[in-house]
Design brief:
Pfam families: Acetyltransf_1. This protein is an alpha+beta fold. The protein is built from four helices and seven strands, in the order βααβββαβαββ.
Length: 158
């Protein structure tokens, strides 16, 4: 059974390992979604801030995502700050295609609805498969924006 919970300090090693595995898998497919390797310090701060969630099946962590208040300066050209940012969504390659991503999205949507806030997410603009997935999940495409030396596609769910 798939369950979602806030990440705990003891989960950090597994989360970093999972993110590294997913990132390398993306890079092998020429999808430059994230930089490799992930750093414990960054994830540890996010866990302390209660932004990181884990997705488990029979207590095994198979995915992770993060959710936080979205700063108006996130770079998305958004007019107000009553938003949530849903990010760093990762599912182990061997568990992809099993509706785990949809479960994570529904979990984040429930939180945003309860808080009466708009949910935003983004991805590398070149990841056509992921962009289609977000559109099919009900997110509205907002546009492509420059992020460092690449473009991101931004989506929102009202």
């Amino acid at each position: 059974m798939c369950e979602i919970r806030l990440a705990e300090k003891d989960d950090i090693g597994i989360i970093v390992e999972l993110l590294n595995k997913v990132t390398l898998n993306l890079h092998q497919k020429s999808i430059n979604q994230w930089k490799y390797p992930w750093h414990f310090e960054e994830i540890n701060i996010e866990i302390k801030n209660r932004n990181v969630y884990v997705i488990t099946i029979d207590k095994l962590i198979v995915g992770t995502f993060s959710l936080k208040d979205m700063d108006i300066n996130e770079g998305f050209h958004i007019s107000n700050s009553n938003n949530l940012y849903f990010y760093r969504i990762a599912v182990l390659p061997e568990y992809q295609g099993k509706n785990i991503g949809i479960k994570a999205i529904n979990y984040a949507l429930e939180i945003s609805r309860n808080l009466k806030r708009t949910l935003y997410l983004d991805c590398w603009a070149g990841n056509i498969k992921l962009k289609n997935f977000y559109s099919k999940a009900g997110f509205n495409y907002c546009g492509d924006f420059k992020e460092e030396d690449y473009m991101i596609s931004v989506f929102k769910y009202l």
